[in-house]
Amino acid sequence: MTHPDGLFYQLIQDLAQGKGLPHLIWRLSQILNRPVLLTNSVHRVLVFHDPHNLNLDLDEFLCVPPVKTNEADFLSRSEHSLHHAQFTLNGQVFPFVYLPLLAGDYCLGYIFVLETYPAADSLKLKSLSAEDKETIFDASMPLLLCLKNSSEVSLRQEQYRDDFIRDILYNNYDSKAAIHEKAKSWGWNLQGSLLALVIDLPDRDFKTAREILPRLFNHSSPISAYINLQLVIILNINGLKKVKLKTALNNFINSFLDRLADHGKDRSSIGIGIGSGVPSITDLYKSYQEAKVAWELGKVFDHKNVCYFEEMGFLKFIFTQPARELEEFSQRVLGPLLEYDQAENTGLLDSLRVFIEYKCQIAECSKALYVHENTLRNRIKKIEQVTGFDLRRVDHMVNVYIALQVLNLGKDD
User: Fold this and answer.
1) For residues 349 and 334, what is the distance between their CA atoms, to the nearest angstrom?
2) Higher pLDDT residue, 72 or 143?
3) 2: pLDDT confidence band, cut at 50, 70 and 90?
4) With 90 as the cut, is the pLDDT of residue 326 above it?
5) What angle do CA 230, 235, 241 make, to 5 degrees?
6) Handedness of CA 59, 65, 66, 68 (dihedral sign)
């Protein structure tokens, strides 16, 4: 049984007194007399304490191999729970042990402890003893409790902030001053020029995406929000000229995609739409709508994973028209088809969507719809009869495609 004066009880008392993760890691580091750090579930460093000031220049993220986590081993304080990793810093190899902090089947974070120091003459640091490992286990549960509490608080704050960003993007706010006052309380910089991105993740793992988002862009923290099954990122672009802005955006996006790939995400399946820069927060809704349009149009016309609205050519002029005019256009083009589907209980509109999605290729589209190619040809012929458009003509196809996208955007909103 753990002694009441031991580390476990000390850390529990610290928690009861409102002390957080930095203090707990400091206390563990002092007892072990070696560097200790704590990361979140995606290996982003949250807290680091080094009692010897070894100047370990660690990256923001620690690259460690994936490990199989087992709550039974964790709770039983089994040696199987301790894993080994090495980091090369300034040409020297530093060995660490690390312990996953598990709540059920979910890992909330990791404790990392330096095993030995490579320059043995400058620091007499012996390998971790059995007692040291017991000390790590003693600290694990209080650290897990603190991480869990921080995670729950963060989740509540995220939901509140997501609602705040949604109101901004849909022009639902009292005043510009009220926006800046609330943003300031969270340390957000929404002054000056801004830009919106939308990110589409097929697996909907937006928690991981938010946790690995780069912390800085143009000296300000990116702001993220989960809206309409997409991750929306708001960036402050004050002072960035057009050429430098494009370079900075590409670097930011590539860094983000690389991190997603490190966590098993398929880069080719991730889609990003980027709106134009706007002069103030009250215009941010425009950049957001442009980012959505850029992604939707880019999927078909550019076949790219990263799509800039500014590079959409004539299409961007079409989609900057007033929403009512776009809706009227969509109704003129697709209204007869919608009415026919409703009256005859058919799914011609869905067949049209799939037909365009598969680049008008009969063979691929028929497989996707699980119908014979001749059946699909008959459907296409009926669609042309009902709408009056010839889907072999580029100008007709562009009208139909734009009308479909307007319809889709209306559903998102």
Assistant:
1) 8
2) 143
3) very low
4) no
5) 135
6) negative
In a domain, 13, yes or no: yes
Query: Which residues 6+ apart lie within 8 Å of 192 measured at CB?
Result: 236, 238, 279, 280
Kindly write down the DSSP assignment for every residue of 84-124, as one continuous string.
EEEEEETTEEEEEEEEEEEETTEEEEEEEEE---S-TTT--
Domain boundary among 287, 315, 343: 315
Q: What is the mean pLDDT of residues 233-251?
A: 93
Residues 185 and 135 in one domain: no
Distance from C-alpha of 409 to C-alpha of 413, rounded to nearest angstrom: 6
Residues facing 358 on adjacent strands: none
Determine which of 37-41, 47-51, 398-402 has the lowest per-residue pLDDT on average. 398-402
Do the beta carbons of residue 160 and residue 153 sit within 8 Å? no
- 91: CATH: 3.30.450.40
Q: Which residue has the higher pLDDT, 119 or 304?
A: 304
In-domain check, residue 336: yes
309 with 330, same domain: the answer is no
Give the max Cα distance, the chain: 86
pLDDT per position as a tens digit, 96-147 = 999 999 888 788 999 999 988 766 555 566 788 889 999 999 999 999 999 9
Query: Are the beta carbons of 212 and 42 closer than 8 angstroms?
Result: yes
Question: Is 17 among the domain residues?
Answer: yes
Domain range for residue 243? 173-315
